[in-house]
Every structure is written in C-alpha cells, then in structure tokens.
C-alpha cells in the first residue's frame, strides 16, 4: 500500500497546506492572478512588491532576457523589472478579496520603500491590516530600485536591515520575513542582522546580479531597451546552487525559519532546498516558463518521494543534509577511492580519456572500439571522468586502502 | 537532451508527382539541437568510417558554436564533394552506423543532415577556398569527369599541376549528374562543387571520348582514368532483348537527360514495371518509375529483405511510394511477342551462408508464376565498358582496371580509381580514391616511386 505522507508545514505559526509558494514577482501581479494560482494548488503567494504611492516606478520595454545552453533554451533568466506600479489602495482591496475567497491559503504582502523608517512603518501597518498573513520586506531587488536607495541598497547594509526590520515590526500586526540579496560578501551576517532586529523569518535569495548576454551583431547588452541595458537580476535553474548555498548558510547561522528561493523548478529542487534547511520554497521563473499548473506535479512528486522512502511527513526531511555540510578543513583527507569503468556498460566514446588527458591526470587508457580503462596508480580521484561519462553508473568509485 | 531531429518531408503522395528533393534541410534551431547530440567522441568511429576521413565531430562542434563557415571548411578540407556527399552518402552503412549514440540505444547523430546544413550555409558565401602551390609546369590528363576524376583533378590542381579533364558526356559530373536524380540531391549541389574545382584552374573538356592513353602520355606527364561503370550487367535470361526491357543505368541516364530537357524519358505512364535487383540502383529505378507515372512497380529480389543491399532509408522510401517488394523471387524469362507482356518468376529459398557470409539461394521446384508487366528494368549490377578499358591498354581483370596500392595501372604514369577499379561503390569512395591517386601521382612525378 502506498502511504500518503503529510506535506503540510508550519511556518511562523502559519499552516501551509504544502511547501510551495509563489514568490513576489510577475505571477503575483494582481489579486486575480493570485487567486487563479491558488485554484491550481499553490499553498500561498507573496504579492508583487508594494511600494508607497509617492514612489515612482517605471516599466521598461522590454525587461527580460535568457541564457540557453546548446539545446536548452533557458538555463538562466534575467529581469530588469521594477516593483508593482499599482497603488496601495488597489492592493488593500485585492488582498481583502483574496483572503475572503481563500481564507486557508497564505497571502504574504511584499513591501519596499526608501530607507525612511516612517515610510516602512506606514506601509507595514496598512498592508498587514489589509489582512495578509505575513509581510516580506524586499531588501534584495538588485536592479533599478537600489539606484534610488531601495531594494539591495538596503539589503547590503546591516544597519539598514536592522532599522527597517525594526520599523516594520513596530507596526505590523503579522509576522515579518526579510528577503535578502545574495549580492553580498556574507549573507549569513545579513540574516543575523535581521534576526537580531526581530525578523520572524528570512527568505533568500533574491535574484543574482548579472549581465545575461550581449548581442554580438549589434554589440547591445540584453535585455535591450532602445539599444542599451543595465545589470539585471538572474533567476532560473542556473542560480539554484547559489540559492542553496545561501539557504544553508542562513540555516546554520540563525534560529528563524527560511523560505528557500532560487531556481526551484521541480519537486526535486524543492526537496534539495528542504534538505539544506528551507521550511518551504518560493517559485517564480519556472511558473513564468510553464504556468501555475506545474504545482500539481510538485505536490504529487514530493508526496511520492516521501512515500517511497517511508517518511510520514515532509518535516522528517527538514534540514537532513545540514549536518553533512562542514568546513573544507574538516573533510576526511584519508578517504581514498579510484575511478573504475564498467567494461560492459562503456560505449567507447573516449570522452573520459580526453577529459583525463587534458583536464586531469592522464590516468585513462583508451583505444577506438575498446572499453576505456583506469590506470589506478595514476588516478587521483578528481571525479571528472565519472561526471563526463554519458552512461549512468558506467564510471564509478572503488574504495582503496592507503 | 532532445532526440534526433527529423526535418519536414513531403508526403509520398505529393512527392511522386515530381522529381524534386522532398526532405527539407535542418533550420538553425534544429541544426543546433542535432549538433548538441554529438558526444564529440575521441578518435571517433564515425570519422574512421568515412572514406574521405572527414573530421565529423569537429564540423558538428562548429555548427554547435554557430561557426557555420568554419564547419564547412572542416568538411571541404577532407572532401571536395562534401556537399554532394551530404546528400548522397549511404550514411546508414558508413558514418552513422558507427555513431556511438547507437551504443546508447539511441538514433545516431544525423551526420548527413548536418553536413547538408553546413554546405547550405557555405554556398551563399562561396565555397571555402584553400591555398594552391604555384604551377610546377607539369600536366596531368584525366579521363572521365565523375567524382573520382574530379577529386583527383582538384587535388592535383592544388599541388600546382596543369589538369585537363575529358568526358564524353555534354556535362561533367558523371553519375552525380547523370545517375543521381534530383530528389536525392539537386544537381546544383554537384554543379557548385564542379565549378569550385574549375576555379582552381582545372580545364574540363566535354563531349570528348579518349581511347588512346599512350598518345596522351606524349603531351601529359601522367594520366588518371576514372571512367566509372557505365554499363549495366544483364541477367542472361531469355527475352532480355525485347522492347520494354531497360538496363537500369541507361534508364536513369535517359530520365536525367529528359529532366535536363535533353531527350525523352521512357513512357511508363499507367504501366506495370518490374525492377530486377536489390541494390540502391534498383531502388532508384523503382522510385523513378513511380515518378514517371507507372501504375504498379515491383522490385523483384532473390533473397529476403534482410539480405537486400540497398540502404534501409531507400527501401523505406520505395515502400512509402507504393513500390511492391517481391522477395525470394527470381526472374526466369521475360515473355512477350513484340514487347514485354509478362515475367516468369520462380520462388527461391535461402540456404546456409557462403564464405562471404551472404546466404545462398536456390529455386523452389514447381514454384514458377507469371507476373504481368509492361516493362522490366534490369538492375543487377554495373561494370565498366569492356571495349573502352581494352582500348586504354591497361591490365584488366574480371572487367575492372587492375591497380596497385598506389592506384597505379600496368602502364607507367597511368593511374586509375573509382568505380572502374572498385566495380561500383559510392561517390564518397570515388572521391577518396581520386584523392589517394592524386597523392600517388604527385609522388611519382616528383621522382618518388
């Protein structure tokens, strides 16, 4: 019999029906969009970032770019979009509508203002009183807003993280989560600042500052706005390792829950985030690419994963990988293996031979039409051959004694 | 990773209405996806399987990076008819059969489609030119203007020789122009490569039949013979002389001329045609008959489909176009009074494999049956014209010119390659032999052995 594991999570006293939230981004631009997403099965959503009406915001034509690789159309996404242009009043009305229709779903209001405490106090009061379940302070947007003292400008300064978190906490009637930027030297330090200031949770990461590509015919950077561009925020599958590293660092350095963001595309990515300490995950790029409907497989895939491994609850895997993350210096220097190639599985492509010859230790012997062979004396167990081998389980490890 | 790309093809009902190519070329996206399937094997077996030794992973890699002209250069460095070969090579027997993706239980990389892509990108920019040695004042005459001859001519011209190619046909190109019909390769492909060869200073004389090789040696320092296999073998059964019986090569030649506006095609409209044989030429003749409006077209082959030497792709094409395969069937005699009316066939049974591994066949007693047909096309093999070879005075064995490892014939200074030597292979094999013979001629004329 297939058991039905519990995939609900508790997040700052809030009950999430599953760990999948929509992040503050284009898919949460209006109440109508959020409600459609809820119907598809998302447990919650963070609104597109709301700012005081006095703060001007512009939409550029156009503002997205992608990077592909070989036959993959998109492995990185980039945007230079700003926060929502929609007035606070509109949001207050729509927040009420959403919560009325979906009282059990989690609605989180994302906020941004200039680094003036009174502005944050005012915004936090208005939006929390509108009926959201939580606030998320956007201290991470890396493009446009920082030029005007907002977004990552604040998230890169521990003193501002402290002051603005405290300001929001003073007036908010609901828990406050701080969204951090990875574009800092030490994100753990930033997370500690937020924790100390009273933040109830951290979300990370916001987008990674980048330059997605250059048109080599026109010399124009992308995304191109009338011939020019600016550095933008990267998301999508390629930023997942950065997001995971940041989440693990924050989980190790603080005692408040983390909402994991960055390249979550499938339930597998979500599992990885949960294993390194995320309480839940937020998704944007994957939804922009394939729509809200992807959540059905996320829920089902996670459930089957847990069931297949005998876990009764998603809580059972929370942070399971964290104890296995340690300092480089603490890794076992006496652990020794050598690569070994399965002669029967080898397809005789010679890729391991070239890789080892030109990028390794010249430890593989190869002749056309014959299976490749490892010279165990020369093998330094760097792993290149096992990674480049196109055949699953063909090149593996053999334990050797020192 | 995406699977092999399958470009758009014209439906069989529509394509048989004409002789035009029916497989589209890869567009840039498909080419990129297909190129990304190449593992870039070390010491790649696909390259070893190419008679001209094209560095296949390298040209595919350059498509992947978007360096299309560079890709075409890699191909052309090894094969002067790289474009033509992209269209006509039996890749299922050559490079693609050795693709390592086969070992992963996947379809092989579509090497020929990528090769066509590179050629089509190269063509508008002008085929990639290579450096030539300065003239060495020596002259080489080449007899025949098929792929072996033109390949040798090109190599020699680049080495600084003055090269003259003579052919009895009105156009150079041999089988590429008179034997391969446009649905396989548009003639413009081979023509562009012939023009390219001419641009290296190769002189082409058409409508000129050479018989006296020794006389040529008075004016030229060396001679290369690449006269191909221009004669179809006969079956040697009664009725083969009846009107309505065609020899496959003559048949294809006449259709090619008809398509060029130089003559009439055999009238097969509404007729029943039996093509005898199981090679690529038999398939070509069958598909040509379909396009000429034949009502029913049979391929009569004495062994089973497994033994049939035609490439699987061709067999599939013929089946799609309505050609009927009469397997394990052998013709006994052709009946008719003033013209063909039927073919007497006998059913065959397979026996044990012979030394070459091919299974023997023998007729089943009393299994004769009558197949009503209006035309018979004999495609049981081809060979050089005996009289022509004899007139050259070179040593001939089993109807083919005898050469040593250096493609040298029995007459000093006279070399030969291609179908006239190998008995009828592929364009790519001919190109490779022309190339090797050119290197040997060069060595000889420089005073080497």
Structure commentary:
The complex is a heterodimer of chains A (402) and B (449). With 402 residues, chain A is of the alpha/beta class. Chain A has two domains: 9-324, TIM Barrel, CATH 3.20.20; 329-399, Alpha-Beta Plaits (2-Layer Sandwich), CATH 3.30.70.20. Chain A is 31% helix and 20% strand. Chain A has helices at residues 31-40, 88-101, 117-130, 152-155, 158-171, 187-196, 240-253, 267-275, 285-290, 295-308, 351-359, 384-388, and strands at 9-11, 14-16, 20-22, 44-46, 64-69, 72-79, 106-111, 134-138, 176-179, 201-204, 208-210, 213-214, 221-222, 232-235, 258-261, 278-283, 337-341, 364-365, 373-374, 395-399. In chain A, the strands form six sheets. Chain A has an eight-stranded parallel barrel, surrounded by eight helices. A four-stranded antiparallel beta sheet of chain A has the order 5-6-14-11, with no helix packed on it. Chain A has a two-stranded antiparallel sheet with strand order 1-2. The longest helix of chain A is centred in the N-terminal third of the chain and has 14 residues, at 88-101. The mean pLDDT of chain A is 96. With 449 residues, chain B is an alpha/beta fold. Chain B has helices at 12-15, 28-36, 45-49, 56-64, 68-78, 82-88, 95-98, 111-122, 147-158, 175-178, 187-198, 213-219, 248-259, 280-291, 312-320, 386-392, 419-422, 427-445; strands spanning 139-143, 162-166, 203-205, 222-225, 231-232, 245-247, 272-276, 296-300, 324-326, 329-336, 340-353, 359-363, 369-372, 375-378, 382-383, 396-397, 400-401, 414-416. In chain B, helix 5 (68-78) crosses helix 8 and helix 6 (82-88) packs antiparallel against helix 8. Chain B is globular. Chains A and B meet through helix 11 of A and helix 2 of B.
List the helices and strands and how they pair.
The complex is a heterodimer of chains A (402) and B (449).
Chain A: E1 9-11, E2 14-16, E3 20-22, H1 31-40, E4 44-46, E5 64-69, E6 72-79, H2 88-101, E7 106-111, H3 117-130, E8 134-138, H4 152-155, H5 158-171, E9 176-179, H6 187-196, E10 201-204, E11 208-210, E12 213-214, E13 221-222, E14 232-235, H7 240-253, E15 258-261, H8 267-275, E16 278-283, H9 285-290, H10 295-308, E17 337-341, H11 351-359, E18 364-365, E19 373-374, H12 384-388, E20 395-399
Parallel strand pairs in A: 3-4, 3-16, 4-7, 7-8, 8-9, 9-10, 10-15, 15-16
Antiparallel strand pairs in A: 1-2, 5-6, 6-14, 11-14, 12-13, 17-20, 18-19
Chain B: H1 12-15, H2 28-36, H3 45-49, H4 56-64, H5 68-78, H6 82-88, H7 95-98, H8 111-122, E1 139-143, H9 147-158, E2 162-166, H10 175-178, H11 187-198, E3 203-205, H12 213-219, E4 222-225, E5 231-232, E6 245-247, H13 248-259, E7 272-276, H14 280-291, E8 296-300, H15 312-320, E9 324-326, E10 329-336, E11 340-353, E12 359-363, E13 369-372, E14 375-378, E15 382-383, H16 386-392, E16 396-397, E17 400-401, E18 414-416, H17 419-422, H18 427-445
Parallel strand pairs in B: 1-2, 1-4, 2-3, 4-18, 6-14, 7-8, 7-14, 8-9
Antiparallel strand pairs in B: 5-15, 10-11, 11-12, 11-13, 16-17
Helix pairs in contact in B: 2-4, 4-5, 4-8, 5-8, 6-8, 9-18, 13-14, 14-15
């Amino acid at each position: 019999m297939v058991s039905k594991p519990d995939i609900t999570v508790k997040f700052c006293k809030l009950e999430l029906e599953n760990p999948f939230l929509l992040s503050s981004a284009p898919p949460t631009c209006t109440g109508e969009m959020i409600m459609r997403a809820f119907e598809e099965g998302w447990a919650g959503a963070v609104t597109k970032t709301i700012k005081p009406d006095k703060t001007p915001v512009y939409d550029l034509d156009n503002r997205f770019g992608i990077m592909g690789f070989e036959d993959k159309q998109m492995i990185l996404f980039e945007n230079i979009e700003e926060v929502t242009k929609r007035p606070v009043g509109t949001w207050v009305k729509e927040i009420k509508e959403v919560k009325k229709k979906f009282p059990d779903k989690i609605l989180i209001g994302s906020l941004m203002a200039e680094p003036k405490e009174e502005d944050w106090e005012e915004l936090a009061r208005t939006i929390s009183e509108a009926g959201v379940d939580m606030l998320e302070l956007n201290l991470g947007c890396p493009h446009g807003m920082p030029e005007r003292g907002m977004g990552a400008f604040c998230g890169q300064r521990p003193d501002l993280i402290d002051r603005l978190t405290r300001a929001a906490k003073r007036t908010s009637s609901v828990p406050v989560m701080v969204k951090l930027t990875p574009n800092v030297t030490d994100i753990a330090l930033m997370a500690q600042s937020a924790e100390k200031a009273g933040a109830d949770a951290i979300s990370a990461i916001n987008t990674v500052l980048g330059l997605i590509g250059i048109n080599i015919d026109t010399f124009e950077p992308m995304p191109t706005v009338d011939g020019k561009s600016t550095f933008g925020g990267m998301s999508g599958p390629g930023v997942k390792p950065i997001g995971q590293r940041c989440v693990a660092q924050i989980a190790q350095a603080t005692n408040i829950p983390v909402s994991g963001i960055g390249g979550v595309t499938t339930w597998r990515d979500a599992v990885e985030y949960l294993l390194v300490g995320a309480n839940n995950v937020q998704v944007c790029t994957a939804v922009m690419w394939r729509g809200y409907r992807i959540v059905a497989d996320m829920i089902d895939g996670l459930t089957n994963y847990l069931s297949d491994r005998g876990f009764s609850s998603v809580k059972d895997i929370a942070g399971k990988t964290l104890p296995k993350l340690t300092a480089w210096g603490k890794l076992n220097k006496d652990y020794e293996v050598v690569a070994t190639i399965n002669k029967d599985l080898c397809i005789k492509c010679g890729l391991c031979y070239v890789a080892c010859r030109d990028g390794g230790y010249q430890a593989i012997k190869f002749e056309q039409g014959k299976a490749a062979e490892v010279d165990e004396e020369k093998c330094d167990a760097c792993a290149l051959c096992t990674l480049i081998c196109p055949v699953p389980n063909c090149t593996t490890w053999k334990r050797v004694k020192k | 990773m995406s699977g092999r790309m399958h470009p758009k093809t014209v439906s069989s009902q529509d394509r048989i209405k004409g002789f035009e190519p029916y497989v589209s070329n890869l567009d840039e996206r498909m080419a990129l996806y297909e190129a990304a399937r190449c593992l870039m094997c070390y010491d790649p077996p696909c390259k070893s399987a190419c008679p001209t030794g094209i560095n296949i992973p390298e040209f595919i890699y350059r498509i992947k990076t978007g360096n299309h002209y560079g890709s075409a250069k890699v191909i052309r460095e090894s094969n002067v008819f790289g474009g033509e070969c992209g269209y006509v090579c039996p890749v299922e027997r050559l490079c693609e059969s050795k693709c390592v993706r086969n070992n992963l239980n996947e379809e092989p990389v579509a090497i020929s489609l990528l090769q066509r892509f590179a050629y089509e990108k190269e063509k508008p920019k002008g085929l990639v030119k290579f450096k030539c040695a300065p003239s060495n004042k020596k002259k080489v005459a080449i007899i025949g203007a098929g792929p072996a001859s033109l390949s040798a001519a090109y190599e020699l011209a680049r080495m600084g020789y003055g090269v003259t190619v003579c052919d009895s046909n009105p156009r150079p190109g041999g089988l590429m122009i008179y034997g391969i019909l446009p649905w396989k390769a548009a003639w413009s492909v081979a023509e562009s490569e012939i023009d390219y060869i001419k641009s290296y200073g190769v002189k082409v004389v058409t409508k000129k039949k050479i018989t006296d090789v020794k006389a040529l040696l008075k004016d030229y320092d060396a001679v290369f013979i690449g006269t191909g296999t221009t004669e179809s073998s006969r079956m040697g059964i009664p009725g083969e002389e009846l009107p309505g019986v065609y020899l496959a090569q003559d048949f294809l030649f006449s259709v090619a001329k008809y398509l060029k506006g130089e003559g009439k095609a055999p009238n097969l409209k509404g007729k029943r045609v039996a093509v005898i044989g199981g090679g690529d030429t038999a398939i070509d003749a069958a598909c040509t008959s379909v396009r000429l409006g034949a009502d029913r077209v049979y391929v009569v082959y004495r062994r089973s489909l497994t033994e049939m030497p035609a490439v699987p792709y061709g067999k599939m094409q013929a089946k799609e176009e309505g050609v009927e395969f009469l397997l394990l069937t052998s013709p006994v005699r052709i009946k008719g009074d003033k013209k063909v009316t039927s073919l007497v066939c006998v059913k065959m049974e397979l026996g044990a494999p012979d030394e070459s591994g091919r299974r023997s066949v023998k007729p089943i007693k009393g299994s004769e049956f009558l197949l009503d047909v209006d035309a018979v096309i004999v495609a049981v093999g081809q060979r050089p014209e005996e009289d022509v070879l004899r007139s050259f005075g070179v040593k001939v064995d089993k109807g083919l010119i005898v050469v040593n490892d250096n493609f040298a014939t029995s007459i000093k200074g006279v070399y030969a390659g291609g179908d006239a030597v190998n008995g009828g292979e592929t364009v790519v094999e001919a190109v490779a032999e022309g190339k090797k013979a050119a290197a040997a001629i060069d060595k000889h004329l420089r005073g080497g052995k």
